[in-house]
Design brief:
The structure is a single chain. The protein contains 9 helices and 19 strands. The chain has 357 residues and is an alpha+beta fold. It has 2 domains: 229 residues, P-loop containing nucleotide triphosphate hydrolases (Rossmann fold), CATH 3.40.50; 110 residues, Beta Barrel (OB fold (Dihydrolipoamide Acetyltransferase, E2P)), CATH 2.40.50. A hairpin with a 2-residue loop joins strand 4 and strand 5. The protein starts with 9 loop residues before the first strand and ends in a 5-residue tail after the last strand.
Length: 357
């Protein structure tokens, strides 16, 4: 077993979990510094919520170790972990008012009433709900209820706060506003936090680092810009952001890279592969232009969508549907028009065809 790093605030080492014959988590390693926000991002069933539950003490791992603030909490019950959790459903008590909900955890700890009142007021002030202390929960909007759940987690001054799809119940506009507000608040109080989501935009907006999970493992752990610009695997590429990708075989290779023959034509990649290897060649849509360049292909326009600051052009290249992102005010090609398009070699990504995609 790998020894935990003593300099980390939260250390997850060699954690695995099975439910019957199904492996839900496999040899997970994740270390977090104090005050860091890491998002677990991935599709349903990838293990992100199970990992969150392991940290919260709601699920015990079959193997591995969890340390928080230098203390082994692998088998500790939830109430002895000093961990705050904000659930997707908020899990608020309808028979208690706002202050009663926020102070519930403090009351369980047996704190004096004056201390509870002070902590509740501080927590509600942080989420701008101090005027709502005596309101019934049912009288609040969804966004306000989400803030109450956050205030309850903050009030106990936890060592780490866990968010399980905490913003998913909000409408898009409120959700985007809360992302920015929540990120600012967590930075303000210096909270260490783990955020679970399947929403890639939310992950890129909120996080110091993102752990992309796939089939119970961490596929890539990186800061948002690195994750987007330099995905380590074909799955990370496909799951985070839009991408243009083609499969092919390597027909030649030299010191500067390889040439991959695809159904749409030959493409150059700045990476050496063995001749005959299966390779996925990719780029991001914003790097594609409707001109000749390093990697040039020809295709037929099947659709174009104006989206304000950008326009998306769908192109059929020998049976493969690809997307090019154009500036919003550019003149768009007509449906059925044959176009030449390309992207720079420097913005070309490549992955072994044997990797999961």
């Amino acid at each position: 077993m790998t020894a935990p790093d003593a300099g980390l605030h939260l250390s997850i080492s060699n954690v695995s979990k099975r439910f019957g014959a199904t492996t839900v988590l496999e040899d997970i390693h994740l270390g977090m510094a104090k005050g860091e926000l890491v998002t677990l991002l991935g599709p349903s069933g990838c293990g992100k919520t199970t990992l969150l539950r392991v940290v919260a003490g709601l699920t015990h791992p079959d193997t591995g170790r969890v340390e928080l603030a230098g203390r082994d909490i692998t088998r500790a019950p939830p109430y002895k972990r000093n961990v705050g959790v904000v659930f997707q459903s908020y899990a608020l008590f309808p028979h208690l008012d706002v202050a009663g909900n926020v102070g519930f955890g403090l009351k369980l700890r047996g704190l004096p009433k004056a201390d509870i009142a002070s902590a509740v007021h501080r927590a509600l002030s942080l989420v701008h709900l101090e005027r709502y202390a005596d309101r019934p929960i049912r009288a609040l909007s969804g966004g306000q209820q989400q803030r109450v759940a956050l205030a309850r987690a903050i009030a106990v001054e936890p060592s780490v706060i866990l968010f399980d799809e905490a913003l998913s119940a909000l409408d898009r506009k409120l959700r985007e506003a809360m992302q920015s507000e929540l990120r600012h608040l967590l930075t303000q109080i210096g909270a260490t936090a783990i955020f679970v989501t399947h929403d890639q935009e939310e992950a890129l907006t909120m996080s110091d680092r993102v752990a992309v999970m796939y089939k119970g493992r961490i596929d890539q752990l990186a800061d948002p810009r690195t994750l987007y610009d330099q995905p380590a695997t074909a799955f990370a590429l496909s799951f985070v952001g839009q991408s243009l990708s083609l499969k092919g075989k390597v027909v030649s290779s030299d010191a500067d890279g390889s040439v991959v023959e695809t159904s749409a034509g030959p493409l150059r990649v700045p990476r050496r592969f063995l001749r005959g290897s299966s390779v996925i060649v990719a780029t991001r849509p914003e790097h594609v232009t409707l001109t000749a360049g390093d990697n040039t292909l020809t295709g037929t326009v099947v659709g174009a969508t104006f989206q304000g600051s950008r326009s998306l052009v769908e192109i059929d290249a020998a049976g493969t549907r690809l997307t090019a992102e154009m500036p919003g005010r550019c003149t768009l090609p007509e449906r059925g028009e044959t176009v030449i398009f390309s992207w720079p070699l420097s913005e070309t990504l490549s992955f072994s065809g044997e990797e999961h995609a």
